[in-house]
Amino acid sequence: MAQSSVPNNQQEIVVAQNSGGGFNPFRALGRIFGGGDRRKKTKAPTQRKTPSRPAGTPPKFEETEKDPDAGLILVVGDRMARGVADGLRFTLAQQPKIKIEKITEDKQGFAGETPPVWATKVLSRIRGAEVKAVVVMLGWRDRDKSFPGEEPIEYMTGEWLEAYRNKVSALVRTVRQEKIPLVWVGLPPTNDELLNGDFTQLNSIYSAAAAERRVRYVDLWDIFLAEDGSYTSYGPDVDGKNTRLRTKNRIGFTWPGYRKVAFFVERELSRLLGGYGGLAFEGVEDDPNFIVLTGRTTSPEAFLLGGEDDAEIDPGSMAYRFFVEGEQLPPVRGRVDDPRTKEEDLSRLGLSNANGS
What we know:
The chain is of the alpha/beta class. The chain contains 9 helices and 7 strands, in the order H-E-H-E-H-E-H-E-H-E-E-E-H-H-H-H.
């Protein structure tokens, strides 16, 4: 096969390719016949906007795997209760012995045409699980709602308040009869004076029911006000950073706001459950080097071994005469604080107070 070769004394001619800069004699022909070095226009990459989370919804976070026998904290109520439940889940995410469950209906309370029977819902869950405590927050959806009947009971009348008080008492009584601690969270302040008046009235019902049944009541009113007592949507979060805590309607909470509410709720739960120490260390084998310093505190329904604290003291007893009447008890012969002891010692030595020494 013949091979073509280029003589050594001849150089290969190479046509330079124009890269877009400098003179190109064929550029005009390229324009005529539709060729050339047309530059392709590239579009700038579009940045997709990540959808923002609705106010009050928690970010994604990881929870440690809960133990099969983990104690249950039940959160009950409306939209605010759902936010508190999310805040507690976030706060207690690394506690394997505690898990959070909620029974919530965002737009429901005690009043209205077909309100939930909260006491029945809670009781059925309590009897079906190892519930350690119940948290309740609801009421702001009850505004302007009447109670059904042959003649509807109008909002905020005396009859309405009495019916509302009975509903609250029924829920509190149901939980306390099961010997379970209860934390009731009050309603927060708003920028509406009329609404504040209604919320104050409802909070007085909640706090009275709590005091009657030894329930922990979390008062949020002053916590979410400015230093001068006025309404503000901003304030320090749980980390001390000033941020928006309330939603645009100035009633609900943002996520930092719910975390702040959950902070105060968790503090009460910690006191009731012993800082989760009693739960966290259950099942640990006996170890003389292992000392639990944060054991479970006495539950509110427990009675001390001393009996009832209203037992009357016998007026004739020495304790009554000393602690109530303030009488000085007679000295015990032979004890160092008995002045007769010193006189007897001196007489035995042949001395007396009269001759000194």
